[in-house]
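Re: coenzyme A structure - here you go.
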Amino acid sequence: MGARTRIVSTGMFVPRRIVTNKELESYMDTSDEWIQQRSGIKERRWVSPGETTCSMAVAAARQALERANLKADDIDMIVFGALITDYLFPGTGVLLQRELGFSKPVPALDIRNQCSGFVYALSLADAWVRSGQYKRILIVGSEVHSTSLDLTTRGRDVSVLFGDGAGAMIVEACDENSPHIFDSCLHSEGKFAEVLTVTKPSSNDFPRISDKLSLDTAIYPHMDGKLVFKNAVTRMCQVLIELLGRNNMKPSDLNFVVAHQANMRINQMVLSELGIPFEKTHHTLDRYGNTTMATIPITFDEAVQLGKIKRGDLVAFVAFGAGFTWGANLLRF
Ligand code: COA
C-alpha cells in the first residue's frame, strides 16, 4: 500500500486588536458601507507591539500540535509562508523552528506564493509525504499586513482589505484506505506580476535603501483591483474544474469548499458559477479580512471547530493571489 497524506490537525491565531471599518474612516476617506458592500469585510485584526509574523506563527503551530497531542520533535519538516517577515533574511521558518523548541535540526522551507501560498505548500507537503522523504509536516502561513499598509486615502483600495493572522496545519503519512489528499493543481502567470505588487525596496536601486525611500509610494502595495477580481473568479473556477475533472469528480460531489478570503463577491461568483450552494462554504473574511496564506488554514480550522466540516467529507481548497498564482487541493478529510 502506497503512502498517502492526511490532515492531522489545524490551529490558528489572530491578534486581539480589532480594527473596525469605522476606525479606518478616521484614517482615510472611506466608509463602513463601501467596504462591506464591495468586499464583505466588517473588521480585521492588527498586531500590537511585540506581536510579529513569527509570534503569530508559533501560536497557531502550538495549537495544531496540542490538538494532535504532538510535540515539536514529532514533526520532521516545516513549510512556512508570509509576505511580510520578521527579517529580510533568514526566513521566518527557521525562527519558527527555534521558537517551537525542536531538539533536532529539522529543515524549514520558506515559500513566497502570496495568497496561493497555502495550496502550494499543501501540494508540496503531500508530494514529500508520498515520496517517503518526510512523514509529518507542519505548514504555517502567517501575515502582518498592518505595519506596511498606506493608511491614507491614496492607499484605501488595498488597505481596507488586509488583516493580520496565522494558520497552521499538520499533515502526515497514512495508508491509501484512510481519508487523504487526492490531488493538487498549481498555476502561475508572471506577466501579471505588477498588477498586485510592492516594488520597493528593490535590488534595482543603488543604494537599495536611501533617505528618499520612505517618501516613495512604491513601498506600499499597489493593485489593479478590477483586473485581480476578474482573474480571481475565472482562474478559481477553472482550477476547480480541472482538479475535479482529472479525478473523475464534479462540483456537486464536494461536501465543502474552503476558498481564499479576499472578497466575498469573488467567492459568491465562483460558487454560483460551479453550482455549489453557499451553505457548502465558510467565511472568516468578514472578521479577519485577507490574511494572505493564512486564510485557508484559518477558515478550515473554524469550519472544523464549528462542525461544518466533518471527518470523511470531500473538501476542496482554492486560492488566487499576486503573481498571478493560483491553485487548488482536493482531499477527503
Ligand atoms: N473606500 C471608498 N472608496 C473607495 C475605496 C475605499 N476603501 N477604495 C476605492 N474606492 C473608490 C475608488 O477610488 C473608485 O472611485 P472613483 O469611481 O471615483 O474612481 C470607486 O471606489 C470604485 O472603485 P472600483 O475599483 O471600481 O471598485 P470595485 O468595485 O472594483 O472594488 C475592490 C474595489 C478593491 C474591492 C475590488 O476591485 C476587489 O476586491 N478586487 C480584488 C482584490 C483582491 O482580491 N485582492 C487580493 C487578491 S489575493
